[in-house]
């Protein structure tokens, strides 16, 4: 039976072992546990476990309910049961793939009868399941060619006579394991790690726990590993989810509080002398959403506190106008504004459209990219430094050393999900606490943006300009792609234009990509559309050439533009009404949505052809989702479900830690509670200096790392 230390609560009257925090446990290597030598250490490292803290927070993926231990003679078809028995023999089952059977069957005997137990995968177990070895197996009892168990788990019982310790009890944890470390060993090690850890101190304030009916951290961790009751296990999980979200939110709250306190930005009091003529000169009326969001942005800019605002709006919702309004306000107030885009093509396009929109106004717009010639660059840098440049458009070249602004008071980051948090920060540091507007078309469900960008205010353009038609989207089998190109030809005969996107090989646009792109262009120009003008755009081209091709496409001189993903973000040619995406199964969902967004801007009903043969369920679901939905927010939720949420946080963009237990779509209500409590706590103690908040502060530092380093500077 489980030893008393694994009961929740720690019995009253016992002497509590010394208290420790999870942070303390991070500096204790797993090697200190008995039974962990170099081999096990390496296997654990493979699972991302290096310290006792990692060990105790390596949570089980599920629990085996051993309340249903049966004798073989008692088994009934359809039930889930656990049996103890000895191995009689084993044999491979299923059709071998590359000489290896996909599973095996072990014949077990327990004194009351025999039963075959089938296991899929995990063939390495065969080395251990020798005749006479005692095992415990559990799974569903099925009737196929006689009765058998299809096992979810099968383990060797190494010491049948001895104390089963952590392996007994009603609920037995089942951990994510790998080849080098097996189920029972993992369970034993976690048992030992919990014992070695002693009493784990709770960094969360007691009153918060009481208000939300949460148990303390120590009990929750123990309960999650070795539960005593199903209800308690659920409560413990909730406690850990709350814990995780609370720490992140407290970190964000502290960061926000600090910025608000220490940063005084310029107050942008625009007089409308540039903004009004710009807005009046637009060839369209603003949507109500655009009007509202411009108002929100300008209100923020009027304040002394620097603006930190995230502007979300689906592809094609018209974010650029908002950016220009902000830039003009900065210029009116006597400062400089800069907008940074993730690709040269997009920077180039912003430059063209912004200079065109402002051509009648006394505003000097300058572009800075990495591929400019030395002379051009020198002139641009000079104007940026002297203040001669009022609005600066560029790529990440803007944040390089040697780019000095005279008085940068507004930074706009377009397609911000393509930049890292660090880049955003460097950009801001080019000015003195400038206002910041970050824009994204990768729609993020609200719950997620609260977590990812909890320190930003959020504006939302939730309305598309009038007259936008849904993009008719079809998945096309590669064998039928010529049919898709026939439909494209019809569009072009009506006077419209089309994009053809090359299959994605690598983000970096390696040479092979370029060659593949060139081949695709050849095929289209020579075989499919010999009568049309077919252009090519890829990331390896010189800036001048890219500019030339885009200009020709915009002017209608190129009818079909073959491109790599360089057109993914923000490129805007309203006359383009069809897009063919070759190798569509290889793109991510949000990437496909962005690509498709290239053709939703005109007045003609647009078409999108996804050429691809999905090879996995996930890629099939992605393509299906695109056929079914136009709405980027809906698509991003689907994407979250397909990819799993972890990936969003693991990415360098987010600057956020991985979520281990929380699932944002599922745990919205916990997130909202945790956020409210965290912000309230930080409001009362903005630097978390109070002695009783110290453990919390240390945990946040561990979790958010460099992002909150300042919290520890004096
Ligand atoms: P995104 O939000 O994807 O960056 P853009 O700002 O590039 O979108 O705008 C997409 C297209 O819609 C552009 O051609 C732009 O001129 C046009 N547009 C923006 N706002 C409106 C509006 N209110 N009415 C009509 N067209 C608009
Ligand atoms: Mg845009």
Automatic annotation (TrEMBL):
SUPFAM superfamilies per the UniProt record, alphabetical: Nucleic acid-binding proteins, P-loop containing nucleoside triphosphate hydrolases
InterPro entries: ATP-dep_DNA_helicase_RecG, DEAD/DEAH_box_helicase_dom, Helicase_ATP-bd, Helicase_C-like, NA-bd_OB-fold, P-loop_NTPase, RecG/Mfd, RecG_dom3_C
CDD domains reported in the protein's UniProt record: DEXHc_RecG, RecG_wedge_OBF
Entry GO MF terms: 3'-5' DNA helicase activity; ATP binding; DNA binding; hydrolase activity
Domain Helicase ATP-binding: 300-461
Keyword vocabulary terms for this entry: ATP-binding, DNA damage, DNA recombination, DNA repair, DNA-binding, Helicase, Hydrolase, Isomerase, Nucleotide-binding
EC number(s) from the headed UniProt entry: 5.6.2.4
PANTHER family hit by this protein: ATP-DEPENDENT DNA HELICASE HOMOLOG RECG, CHLOROPLASTIC
Protein name according to UniProt: ATP-dependent DNA helicase RecG
């Amino acid at each position: 039976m489980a030893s008393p230390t694994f009961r929740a609560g720690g019995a009253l009257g016992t002497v509590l072992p010394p208290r420790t925090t999870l942070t303390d446990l991070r500096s204790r290597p797993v090697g200190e546990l008995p039974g962990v030598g170099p081999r096990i250490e390496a296997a654990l490292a493979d699972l991302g476990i290096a310290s006792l803290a990692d060990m105790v927070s390596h949570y089980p993926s599920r629990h085996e309910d051993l309340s249903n231990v049966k004798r073989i003679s008692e088994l009934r078809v359809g039930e889930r049961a656990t049996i103890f028995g000895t191995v009689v023999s084993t044999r491979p089952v299923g059709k071998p793939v590359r000489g290896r059977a996909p599973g095996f069957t072990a014949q077990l005997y327990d004194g009351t009868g025999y039963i075959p137990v089938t296991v899929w995968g995990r063939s390495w177990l065969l080395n251990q399941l020798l005749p006479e070895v005692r095992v415990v197996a559990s799974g569903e009892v099925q009737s196929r060619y006689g009765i058998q168990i299809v096992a979810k788990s099968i383990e060797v019982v190494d010491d049948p006579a001895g104390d089963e310790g952590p392996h007994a009890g009603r609920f037995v944890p089942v951990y994510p394991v790998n080849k080098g470390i097996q189920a029972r060993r993992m369970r034993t090690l976690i048992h030992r790690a919990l014992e070695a850890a002693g009493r784990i101190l709770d960094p969360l304030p007691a009153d918060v726990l009481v208000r939300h009916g949460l148990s303390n951290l120590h009990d929750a961790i123990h309960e999650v590993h070795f539960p005593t009751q199903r209800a308690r296990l659920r409560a413990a999980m909730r406690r850990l989810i709350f814990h995780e979200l609370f720490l992140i939110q407290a970190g964000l709250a502290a960061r926000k509080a600090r910025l608000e306190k220490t940063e005084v930005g310029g107050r942008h009091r625009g007089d409308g002398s540039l903004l009004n003529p710009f807005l009046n000169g637009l060839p369209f009326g603003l949507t109500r959403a655009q009007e509202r969001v411009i108002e929100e942005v300008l209100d923020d800019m009027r304040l002394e506190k620097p603006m930190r605002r995230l502007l979300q709006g689906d592809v094609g919702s018209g974010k650029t106008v908002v950016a220009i309004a902000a830039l003009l306000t900065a210029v009116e107030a006597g400062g400089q504004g800069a907008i940074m885009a993730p690709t040269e093509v997009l920077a180039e396009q912003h430059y063209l459209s912004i200079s065109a929109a402002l051509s009648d106004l006394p505003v000097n717009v300058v572009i800075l990219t990495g591929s400019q010639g030395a002379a051009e660059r020198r002139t641009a840098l000079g104007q940026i430094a002297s203040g001669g440049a009022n609005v600066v458009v560029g790529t990440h070249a803007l944040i390089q050393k040697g780019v000095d602004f005279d008085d940068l008071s507004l930074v706009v980051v377009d397609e911000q999900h393509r930049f890292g948090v660090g880049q955003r920060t460097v950009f801001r540091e080019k000015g003195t606490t400038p206002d910041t507007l970050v824009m994204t078309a990768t729609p993020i469900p609200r719950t997620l943006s609260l977590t990812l960008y909890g320190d930003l205010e959020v504006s939302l353009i939730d309305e598309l300009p009038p007259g936008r038609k849904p993009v008719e989207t079809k998945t096309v089998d590669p064998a039928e792609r010529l049919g898709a190109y026939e439909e494209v030809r019809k569009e072009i005969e009506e006077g419209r234009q089309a994009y053809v996107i090359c299959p994605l090989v690598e983000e970096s646009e390696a040479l092979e990509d370029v060659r593949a792109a060139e081949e695709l262009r050849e095929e289209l120009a020579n075989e499919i559309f010999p009568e049309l003008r077919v252009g090519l755009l890829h990331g390896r081209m010189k800036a001048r050439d890219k500019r030339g091709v885009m200009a020709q496409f915009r002017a209608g001189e190129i009818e079909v533009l073959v491109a790599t993903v360089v057109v993914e973000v923000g490129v805007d040619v309203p006359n383009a009404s069809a897009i063919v995406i070759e190798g569509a199964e290889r793109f991510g969902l949000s990437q496909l949505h962005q690509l498709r967004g290239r053709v939703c801007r005109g007045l003609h009903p647009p078409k999108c052809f996804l050429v691809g043969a999905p090879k996995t369920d996930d890629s099939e679901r992605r393509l299906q989702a695109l056929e079914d939905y136009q709405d980027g927010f809906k698509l991003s939720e689907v994407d979250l479900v397909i990819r799993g949420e972890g990936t969003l946080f693991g990415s360098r963009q987010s600057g956020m830690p991985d979520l281990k237990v929380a699932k944002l779509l599922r745990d919205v209500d916990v997130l909202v509670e945790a956020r409210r409590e965290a912000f309230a706590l930080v409001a009362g103690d903005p630097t978390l200096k109070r002695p009783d908040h110290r453990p919390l502060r240390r945990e946040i530092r561990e979790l958010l790392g460099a992002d909150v380093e300042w919290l520890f500077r004096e």
